[in-house]
């Protein structure tokens, strides 16, 4: 341990001596002033320092499991990645910043297989945006990225932004450690240390305006880490562990039939969606056995109430009356047409501690009156309630940059394109690969099948295979 510390201290001093770290007043890319400047481009002129760096990075890489291939973030990290590749024997790919307009037009050069686990190598991280741009291009080519090794973490918020996008950063040095080493080696005095400390405290990168990773490329387990709504998090975990993205629409009018179906298809679904007001013989006695089946088979109860009224009425509809929805349904749907009051009402209502809302942004019915502007405003609303909103009900990949939210898509059936009352259907494969669905809602495709269990298994498999091919094209 102290050996590693000594080597890092020695390396920090080397960086200082070759002017890769400078102190003074410097202008950043965005016109701000910084008291510390890192210029690691000079490393190519000092092969001995580059060698020390490669050795240190190789040690760090040992903590990352399953790496198949390396990729340096252009341009400064390209020679660093090359040095690490030579040292470890791991192959490398190179990302072009812009595609060639001749020949192959490739953005990623080198030999790789879709599904290879690619470790990112970067020199300095401030916001993490350069890493995310590289990750995006690599993922578009089917490579998987979950870790980045960096020389210096400037501690300005980049680690958190990367984590939100499913990338774990492993830094050789933080700026504070670097300052500490240089101070102990008498390279800098206490005033410089204090100036940098103050700069760091006052210059954290806001976490919003960075390029984000396409949610369709991330695994559900990775997205579980990013989910802010507790039910969405649990749903992602259930989807990953049960390998199912199937939500059953149990649109049956008989309470016993609902319980029987829930028991039989429970192992193959992640959620069971009800329209509780269509049950002819509803009594609150239906709820306890339904909850027990949901617990035993590990799926979530979801009432498709589509709340749309003033907040006060919604709160009463959600928690009172015959159905007492808030006492048993972890998830509900809501329209955005009445604005924020609906969400405030659900948020503030008594009932289950863990609750989540799916907002309706599009409908599967022909002739739906929902306009593009309405859809856009609905999506905006999701950003204002990150802890409450579990996802969006829609028919298209409307949002890609928020992996914390779940796309729920109804209107799914094998070999049928519509019903006689305006419902429109897509196939399980196309809703996942083309339409962007994370969870598919299937009702009559299962409830009206001659063998509902066999049908549920078939939908589960088709949907799960489509998800696997989406994250591993
Ligand atoms: O746009 C929407 C929103 C909700 N639904 C609901 O999904 C199921 C679909 O049932 P199928 O039998 O598979 O057609 C049903 O409960 C709807 O209320 C939707 O279809 N479209």
Description of the molecule:
The strands form three sheets. An eight-stranded parallel β-barrel has the order 9-10-11-12-13-14-15-16, surrounded by six helices. The protein has helices at residues 2-17, 47-61, 77-88, 129-140, 158-164, 175-184, 190-202, 220-226, 230-242, 255-265, 287-297, 311-319, 340-348, 372-384, 428-433, 444-447, 452-471; strands spanning 21-27, 33-38, 69-72, 92-95, 108-109, 118-125, 147-153, 168-174, 246-249, 271-274, 300-307, 331-334, 356-360, 389-393, 406-409, 439-442. The protein is an alpha/beta fold. Helix 4 (129-140) links the parallel strand 6 and strand 7 (147-153). It is built from 17 helices and 16 strands. The chain has two domains: 1-203, 3-Layer(aba) Sandwich (Rossmann fold), CATH 3.40.50.2020; 215-471, TIM Barrel, CATH 3.20.20.70. Helix 8 packs antiparallel against helix 9, helix 10 (255-265) packs parallel to helix 11 (287-297) and helix 12 runs parallel beside helix 13. It is 40% helix and 18% strand. Bound molecules: ligand LLZGTKA7. The ligand O=c1ccn([C@@H]2O[C@H](COP(=O)(O)O)[C@@H](O)[C@H]2O)c(=O)[nH]1 binds at residues 249, 251, 275, 304, 363-364, 393, 410-411, 423, 441-445. It comes from Dendroctonus ponderosae. InterPro entries: Aldolase_TIM, OMPdecase, OMPdecase_AS, OMPdeCOase_dom, OPRT, Or_phspho_trans_dom, PRTase-like, PRTase_dom.
